[in-house]
Write a structure and sequence with these properties.
The protein is α/β, with parallel strands linked by helices and about 300 residues long. The strands form four sheets. Strands 3-2-1-4-5-6-11 form a seven-stranded parallel β-sheet, sandwiched between helices. A three-stranded mixed β-sheet has the order 12-9-14. Helix 2 packs parallel to helix 3, helix 3 runs parallel beside helix 4 and helix 5 packs parallel to helix 7. The protein is globular and about 60 Å long. The protein starts with a strand and ends in a 5-residue tail after the last helix.
């Protein structure tokens, strides 16, 4: 039976991924720093990936055939240049080594679109767009991507590297773009869109989770963008949210905002693996608004 060890399983992406892996026939071993009750579909294990001794015991106890490494520092507003990125890089390298030594067959890691040269013309393509990270987070992820490839060759396991672009959806940190705008609008506040001209490529977190499961379940090796292939101005997203909330005139745009650039991924590799998104941008934003609306009704301070 295929056994997948999922790090960062309780995170924004991980929480939407576990059931999809179970449905695909994996025995799912989910790792979190916080204890969670196990179910028929998911066995939860409490462990800190930064603790090498604990990770070694975990790998040799579980003996995973597959590894899905999602864990990393993700604290909003801090992670871009946090020194903890170096700690996560070192721990991740050891995780991959231990996985290889234990006879693992396939590893999939989670990178970032920040590995690319953001001054390059869009759409960003895995095979042709230069890699030029401009912060510690992007540099650490790019370094891990290169090392994962070499470790995979050394230990003879297959590997793929997912580069998500911009995601949103239920459960996201409320300080991030979409939930901060949605919650402000739902609370009846007047809202300013600070970077309306920036063009970004968004996917709903459920589609991101399905894309990751698709990559893990394939034989594809190398980098793959998790993107829609389409860019949307941030100002347009803000306008959509205001309409979905029922307050179409509540959004104002910062007239002094700079261009913001265009960060759009080429989705052709992902599409070639058979992935099709469930949500378009409007339906995904509607789903997100309703999730936050329900949360505010239940706990007004929770948004």
């Amino acid at each position: 039976m295929k056994t997948v060890l999922v790090t960062g399983a309780a995170g924004f992406i991980g929480g939407h991924t576990l059931q999809r892996l179970a449905t695909r026939g994996y025995k799912v071993e989910a790792v979190s720093r916080v204890a969670h009750p196990s179910s028929d579909a998911v066995c939860w294990r409490k462990a800190d990936i930064l603790d090498i001794d604990t990770v070694e015991k975990l790998i040799y106890e579980v003996r995973p055939t597959h590894l899905l490494h999602l864990a990393w520092i993700t604290e909003h507003g801090i992670y871009w240049n946090a020194p903890e990125n170096v700690e996560w890089l070192i721990a991740s390298l050891k995780l991959l080594e231990l996985f290889g030594r234990a006879g693992g067959e396939r590893a999939v890691g989670l990178g970032t679109c920040a590995e690319y040269d953001w001054s390059a013309p869009p759409p960003f393509c895995e095979a042709t767009t230069p890699l030029l990270p401009r912060n510690l987070y992007g540099a650490a992820k790019n370094s891990l991507s290169l090392m994962q490839s070499q470790i995979g060759r050394h230990f003879h396991f297959k590997q793929a590297w997912c580069r998500p672009f911009f995601l949103y959806g239920p459960g996201e940190n409320p300080s991030r773009l979409v939930p901060s705008l949605a919650c402000s609008l739902l609370r009846g506040e007047s809202t300013v869109c600070r970077d309306p001209n920036a063009i970004r490529d968004f996917l709903h977190v459920n589609d991101i989770a399905e894309a990751i499961a698709t990559v893990l379940d394939s034989d594809y090796e190398g980098a793959v963008n998790l993107s829609s292939g389409h860019g949307t101005e941030i100002g347009e997203i803000a306008n959509m949210l205001s309409i979905l909330v029922g307050r179409p005139t509540a959004i104002s745009h910062d007239r002094n905002a700079h261009d913001g650039g265009s960060l759009v991924g080429d989705a052709s590799v992902l599409t070639s693996l058979g992935f099709l998104p469930k949500f378009d941008l409007r339906s995904g934003l509607a789903d997100t608004v309703e999730w936050w609306r329900d949360r505010l009704r239940a706990a007004p301070e929770g948004c």
